């Protein structure tokens, strides 16, 4: 596993941060209707693994929420196998921004984890 030799981030293309920005822009190209309703209160969301698999895509997930001024606390590591129901991570930040990043982050993580599994 690559994690034994260095950080997985070293394998990413230098443009991955721009890719994440483009994904976020594509996902919410106009007015943020959800954010209008929920506001700026700081909340947390839990990422739960609901089927057996391997966690992959952590750098992309982290970057989505970094760009939205949220924090991610991981409870398992990239490449680690898990069984359901596993609390994999906690995201903290303004609820509006958690909702803005949720779909992009989860889709990316699910795709990467599906390939890794």
What string, H for helix and E for strand, traces the elements in order? HHEEHEEEH
Broad structural category: alpha+beta
Percent in strands: 15-25%
| Percent in helix | 40-55%
- So what's the overall shape? globular
Q: For the terminal residues, how far apart are their CA atoms?
A: 13 Å
- Taking all Cα atoms into account, the compactness measure Rg is 14 Å
Quick recap of the structure?
This protein has 117 residues and is of the alpha+beta class.
Any overview of this molecule?
By secondary structure, the protein is of the alpha+beta class. It is built from four helices and five strands, in the order ααββαβββα. Strands 1-5-3 form a three-stranded antiparallel β-sheet. α1 (16-27) packs across α4 and α3 (58-67) packs antiparallel against α4. The mean pLDDT is 92.
Descriptive key words:
globular; alpha+beta; 5 strands; two-stranded antiparallel ribbon; 117 residues; 4 helices
Topology diagram in text:
Elements: H1 16-27, H2 33-38, E1 42-49, E2 53-54, H3 58-67, E3 71-74, E4 81-82, E5 86-94, H4 95-116
Antiparallel strand pairs: 1-5, 2-4, 3-5
């Amino acid at each position: 596993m690559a994690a034994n030799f260095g950080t997985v981030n070293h394998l990413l293309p230098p443009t991955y941060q721009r890719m994440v920005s483009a994904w976020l822009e594509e996902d919410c190209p106009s007015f943020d209707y959800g954010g209008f309703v929920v506001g700026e209160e700081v909340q947390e969301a839990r990422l739960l693994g609901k089927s057996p698999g391997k966690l992959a895509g952590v750098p992309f997930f982290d970057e989505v929420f970094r760009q939205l001024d949220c924090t991610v606390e991981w409870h398992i590591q990239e490449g680690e196998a898990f069984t359901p129901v596993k609390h994999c991570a906690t995201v903290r930040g303004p609820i509006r921004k958690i909702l803005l990043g949720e779909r992009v982050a989860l889709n990316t993580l699910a795709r990467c984890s599906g390939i890794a599994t």
